[in-house]
# Entry
Amino acid sequence: MKLFERNHHKTNKDYTIIVGCGRLGASLADRLSDQGSNVLVIDEQEKSFRKLSPDFGGMVIQGDATEFSVLKRAEIGKATSVIAVTNHDNTNVMIAQIAKEMFHIDNVIARLYDPDRECVYRELEINTICPVVLSTSKVDQLLHEM
Amino acid sequence: MKTKILLIGGSDETRFLARSLLNKGYRVTVINESREQCESLATIKGLQVFQGDGSKPFVLEDANAYNADIAIALSEFDDANLVICELCKKQFHVKKTVALITDPEKTDFFRMMGVDSVVCTTTTISSLIEQHALMNDLNTVMPLGSHIQVAQIVIPEDAPAVGKKLWEIQLPKAVIIGCIMRGENSVIPRGDTRIMKNDKLILIVSDSDRQAAFRALAGN
# Structure
């Protein structure tokens, strides 16, 4: 499959793969696509792609992104960023590590619900976002503004 | 001091493994998420059981992962087993980690991530089935590294090798016959050992010379 031919009108070279088309994945995909980036979303379930906006101009692949064959179909070698935002921490950890260590992607971001697992990522230079930590500090900030 | 082994996840195989390790004198602790599994595991004498998700650091801490010598991740999910092994290694400094995986393509990746031993259920079971189903073929018993394997072959009656001495058989270079199993006996072969029908030969062979070795020993 030649993913890039369809996008030849786009001049920028950045290419982001988003794994997991939940609320966060879909919203990120929509935003990046609005900004004119090349985006590809991978999700195991076809129906998850319904969350994408009708204007979404990127690509989708249905499949298990922990399988190398699926990542190769997504031409992960050409990706500049990989964002792992499935609903399972362990899956996000594994995908992020595969992207970093097997395919040498520079910018790898993973969502972690459980901040305790962060030690696995730290030395691998994987960026993590943790909703609990973000919400806590935001709430804390709002409380102190009052 | 007894070696302490931590088994995380899994179902029937965990129970068998726990029993077998306890019988061999190891100290065994299991972590399992399912209450049902835990209840059944708790009936095994001398086994310490913790209920919880073993890919969470606090559960591993409760189960004294700090003191474990070996951690074996047996859950049905490859990703969980990776995280379990990484946590055991990095946070709890367990000396040896073993992961069960189902996707054979990830074996090297798991090793790269610092898992000491990777057991792939898919390849192990399929090669066992092949071994049993195709007795008169050359069967891989155990892959060693990337291009070498231990294989076995049973010599059929009409094979060209029957009655010949080993040095008379034109074997490819990358083959070593390690052992000949003849009935109840095993023979360590020398150049003048004669091959007989129904001998089971244990070979160390390179992937590329496998077919040639098979032809020379068993014919087509």
Summary: The two ends of chain B are 55 Å apart (CA to CA). Residues 4-119 of chain B form a domain with the Rossmann fold fold (CATH 3.40.50.720).
